Amino acid sequence: MKILITFTLVMLGIFANAQNKRFTYEYQFVPDSTNVSDLKNEVMNLDVSESGSKFYSYTVYNSDSLMKIDVEKQMAAGGMLNLKSNNRRGLVRYAVTKKYPKYEVFLQNRILRDQYNVSEERPIVWKITSEKLKVGEWMTQKAETDFAGRHWYAWFTTDIPIQDGPYKFHGLPGLMVKMEDQTQSHRFTLKAVKNISSIPKDVFGANEISVNAKQYSKILKDYENDPARGFKQAQMGGAIMVTKDGQSSNIKDQEASIKEKIKKDNNKIELD
Q1: Residue ranges making up the domain that contains 93
Q2: 246 in any annotated domain
Q3: Cβ distance 228 to 258 under 8 Å?
Q4: Rounded alpha-carbon distances, angstroms, from residue 186 to 40, 126, 224
Q5: pLDDT tens-digit map of 32-84
Q6: Contact between 190 and 135 (Cβ < 8 Å)
Q7: pLDDT digits (tens, 9 = 90+) for 98-107
Q8: Which UniProt keywords apply (predicted)?
Q9: CA-CA distance, 221 to 217, in Å (whole number)?
């Protein structure tokens, strides 16, 4: 109880005057373990308020926001909708939310037309070392943990007394400024800190399906085994599949394309 009260008082001090915080990270990752030279980059936001945090791709969120504006303009003009898939930017389609002070963790992700809210029940157990490192303007201390099939190194700073970090990670006595797994195929580095008026509420919609990790794993496996199921259902409803250049496309071509993408996305942040 004493720890909880102390944490609450610290959080109230940080968020005095209703100033929410945005921590912007550079996320570098290798999606295909057979092609380690193909390093991807994504701009990720960790938006923190007194009640919790939301971690999501700024690249995806900004792209989707621009697409939404385009759709509204086209509808207002009464013209035909022109939704080009190549206008979408960003590779990290999921988001992670945490609820304070218990740090309940949830992964939000879309599979086909459905949005899922997946509860995370695995604890994160840290080993804090004596090693220090200056990362940017922050003096940090190193910690280690094993999570979801990877060994992780984290550098946290007590100068920012928020027990949060990128993705699902939390529980250190300060914000995680840098994180990377042992293979160095996933790395998060803090690049900027700013005050924000509010956390975006429409990163994911309200119509989410709540599932546990086991249920979500089965849903994901079913999708990977039959990724064209959504196209098949749409075609049964009379929809016509087209490619980016406007040419018609059949289900087999769509399925082959998606399976090839899944095959190359074999180095996910969670291995088990």
Answers
A1: 2-225
A2: no
A3: yes
A4: 10, 18, 22
A5: 999 999 999 999 999 999 999 999 999 998 875 544 544 444 445 555 444 45
A6: yes
A7: 999 999 999 9
A8: Signal
A9: 6
